[in-house]
Design brief:
Blueprint: E1 6-10, H1 17-28, E2 31-34, H2 40-50, H3 58-82, E3 87-90, H4 93-103, H5 108-119, E4 126-131, H6 134-140, H7 154-170, E5 175-179, H8 184-197
Parallel strand pairs: 1-3, 1-4, 2-3, 4-5
Helix pairs in contact: 2-3, 3-5, 4-5, 4-7
The structure holds thymidine-5'-phosphate (TMP).
Length: 203
């Protein structure tokens, strides 16, 4: 049996990636999933990770994200792909490099080594970065009830965005960058062009 496709959407908060990831999965009868939090263990990890009133160090935050990812890869992503079904994930390993590495300043080499430990060879076929300016994201987000990451300052989100762009530029064979500031239809068309390019057109 051939292995399913594995496509990941990345971007700063309010980049529109969750809506697009769900659409792509629905149109292809693929398994939609997300990080952090799409396993029973992950539900608890996500609650702690997003709770702005529960401070934790950047390293602790990194390790909890990686625990979520390791469990997610082993119990959801890998088994689905091995069964021949496809997976569309809203965030994966690049979120830790961008947010905890570039954003919080955790050592990038150590984070990469820990990521390898967490996911082994479970790599996406392509990662689609929906890139938007931080000011545009800020306008889209609710101003009250912001979580730990949404309440971080503009400079943090600028570092995360720059980190994503650096990751994409360093590995053009596995990354595509799409302007996420356009309207839903325009962004959808650009995403469909990428998926057709990797041989996974919509139905
Ligand atoms: P979400 O809003 O896409 O559900 O993600 C929740 C927050 O978690 C988001 O602000 C990004 C953050 N995050 C990290 O900081 N590192 C990670 O590795 C992941 C997966 C998410």
């Amino acid at each position: 049996m051939s292995r399913g496709r594995f496509v990941v959407f990345e971007g700063i908060d309010a980049s529109g990636k969750s809506t697009q990831a769900r659409r792509v999965a629905d149109e292809r009868a693929a398994r939609f999933t997300f990080e952090p939090g799409d396993t029973p263990l992950g539900v608890d990890l996500r609650r702690w990770l997003l709770d702005a009133s529960a401070p934790m160090s950047p390293v602790t935050e990194s390790l909890l994200m990686l625990a979520d990812r390791s469990h997610h890869a082993a119990t959801v992503i890998e088994p689905t792909l091995a069964a021949g079904d496809s997976v569309v994930s809203d965030r994966y390993w690049a979120s830790s490099i961008a947010y905890q590495g570039y954003g919080r300043g955790v050592d990038l080499a150590l984070l990469r080594a820990a990521t390898e430990l967490a996911i082994g060879a479970c790599q996406p076929d392509v990662t689609i970065l929906l890139d938007i300016p931080v000011e545009v994201a800020d306008e889209r987000r609710l101003r009250d009830h912001r979580d730990r990451f949404e309440s971080a300052d503009v400079a943090f989100h600028e570092r995360v965005r720059a980190g994503y762009l650096e990751l994409a530029a360093a590995d053009p064979a596995h990354w595509r960058v799409i302007d996420g500031a356009g309207d839903y239809e325009t962004v959808s068309v650009a995403i469909e062009a990428v998926l057709a390019e990797i041989g996974w057109p919509g139905g």
